[in-house]
Amino acid sequence: MAGNDDHLTTATNDPSGKTSAWVAIHMARSEQAANDARDALTAEGFLVRIHPVFRGVSAQENMYEIQVLRGEMREARAVLMERGIS
């Protein structure tokens, strides 16, 4: 993927001021879509975290961040694109 991928990351600072090693590479519109993305990525050997975006919202109405390690974000995005998930 060519170009700058900074817009794909949601690197946040923890209370100590350090930048997170995890970045969001995809937003899933359902819990099932998030699980499908996670399964595709873990099948390729990526470490994956899923986080609901909203608090106090049912699983059916929520959106989910798919996060991977910062050093693997380009490769992980490529896997999602190859599988038609992104």
Summarize the structure.
The protein is α+β, with helices and mostly antiparallel strands.
The N- to C-terminal Cα distance equals 13 Å
Number of strands: 3
Structural class: alpha+beta
Instruction: Indicate the overall shape.
Output: flat
Run of helices and strands = EHEEH
Radius of gyration: 13 Å
- Please outline the major beta sheet: 3 strands, antiparallel
What is the averaged pLDDT score?
Answer: 85
Number of helices: 2
Helix content: 25-40%
Which ranges are low-confidence, i.e. pLDDT below 50, for 5 or more consecutive residues? 1-11
Kindly describe this structure.
By secondary structure, this protein is α+β, with helices and mostly antiparallel strands. The chain contains two helices and three strands; from the N terminus they run E-H-E-E-H.
